[in-house]
């Protein structure tokens, strides 16, 4: 068994949902050990949190720059090998860039950067570094999403005709309808979240799922946003028409004010031979649709699934796996890449996915601002 990869954590302290998700995911397959961190902007809070989760405090640093400086003083076989960035959006780019420039591998939350220009700069930095960069589009880690990808790649749906992806949540309702709250939340602050709230936070996941599962690229799009209140011009709802080819079209629907919805990510792909449908809230069921046969249901852990799907399944059939396991599969794929082992290119999202995501977000904003017109993706 290879030695555990030395992991550093940036952000994710306190009651952060993302923090818990990343930490548990890193432990699941026994590939990582947290050896250093900056959990919070306040050093005392970071130290207190490290003690709370029983991590030694000798490498809990006062800030990010100190972490990089002090880690580089350590022998190479002791220092952090990869850093996981779990901070608010505006810190992703400067942190990832500095880490890559100083020889660290990077696992980064999405969106990768604040804008497309930063994404292109980071791509160049990554190329020069020779290091691994993994972007945590978590939902690509579900076994049945991976099964969907492999079935489409094998031509089981034939020529793709139509794609339909949605991501509906309702959590921001009590915030967006309260003037004081909506002016104080970082997700609705363009200086910290970037130019988009809804499409930048969750719509980009639906976009990524479309390209991940189909293997096709979105060529152009038309977007219509809803802001609800004039004093906050950050989108909280949007619909995007997409074109992926001359006869391959679809829609991406995203909302943070879908009242009563929880985490409603779903995707359906339709082709000449059949269709596939998957929902994140019922992740262990992949439905295969046909005009001539009854609906088929695929579930994780069975021998009929693809190698990529089975590689991401930890339990026998009938034992539910969830979002921690999905994120763990991304960490597992990144671990293979860091160790120089062979891996499937579907095991973790890459710099290219981050670049495509930022291009998508900026083009949705541009399409809306220009009067809901078609714009081309790079």
Automatic annotation (TrEMBL):
Domain Gfo/Idh/MocA-like oxidoreductase N-terminal: start-end pairs:
8-136
Q: Which residues form the GFO/IDH/MocA-like oxidoreductase domain?
A: 145-277
The entry's protein name is Oxidoreductase
Organism expressing this protein natively: Flagellimonas lutaonensis
Under the heading Gene3D superfamilies, the entry gives: Dihydrodipicolinate Reductase, domain 2 (3.30.360.10), NAD(P)-binding Rossmann-like Domain (3.40.50.720)
Q: Which InterPro entries match?
A: Gfo/Idh/MocA-like_OxRdtase_N (IPR000683), Gfo/Idh/MocA_oxidoreduct (IPR051317), GFO_IDH_MocA-like_dom (IPR055170), NAD(P)-bd_dom_sf (IPR036291)
Q: Which GO terms describe its molecular function?
A: nucleotide binding
